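Form 7-S
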Amino acid sequence: MIKAAFWRPGTKLAGTITRHVNTQHGPIMELALDKPRVIKGDKKKNVKDRTISHVILGNQRGLQMAAESAGVPFPYPLQAHVDITCTGHQHTGKGNDMALFSVEFDVPDDMRQADVADVSDFELAELPE
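Output:
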């Protein structure tokens, strides 16, 4: 999994939702990446680079807002294809800047909802490593 420091403007992740898990903090989703990513290690701590092929998307309000804006249920439907792009950061005054994202969904029409909010950017909170 990835920490928030991973997200820089222009950073992209794309993949397919493969699993839902209900936690005490709400649903989380597993994203099987279209292309594996190399995560840099820390030579000072003797942590090697590693390749990941899955990440976890948590129960963040921003992910819910992205789904609402696209008419997609939350958690995202299994087998939905998702393209996430970091578009920048916004200062929040709460100690951490908020990463802004653009999200595109490829979801069959029968899995979409009507009457949704019009929100194009959202925050993706830290994905623990």
